[in-house]
Amino acid sequence: MVQQVTKGIKISVDTTFEGTFYKDHKIHFAFGYSITIENQSKDSVQLTTRFWEIKDALNNKEIVEGEGVIGKKPVLKPGESHSYNSGCLLSSPFGAMKGHYNMVNFTSTRKFKVLIPSFKLSAPFALN
């Protein structure tokens, strides 16, 4: 598990390898990740958008941007947390993801970025 705190918001990430499958005559490696966003600050905040940079071992890069996370824009009061699961497909058995969430502080009305720490994606069968 990797963790990072930015401006009182703690991000924890856990990953799993989900398996391989073929699509359009090409092998794909499926990974899942669980993220917990914990508000350790004294203010209520809301996650508004997300930004991901996904790379695989073949140096393929994908950028994913969008509203909220899995269709939600969670509001977190001090001490509250929000967890969700998602996933991605890679063209190789290794890769990494990193990114950030854009959030708004309800007390100051200021927008701010919360960094998502870089985390590795690896298929257990490919590890030495």
From TrEMBL:
Family matches, as Gene3D superfamilies: ApaG domain
Gene: apaG
Organism: Aquimarina algicola
Protein name (Swiss-Prot/TrEMBL): Co2+/Mg2+ efflux protein ApaG
Pfam families attached to this UniProt entry: DUF525
Domain ApaG span(s) in chain numbering: 3-128
SUPFAM superfamilies, sorted: ApaG-like (SSF110069)
InterPro entries per UniProt: ApaG-like (IPR050718), ApaG_domain (IPR007474), ApaG_sf (IPR036767)
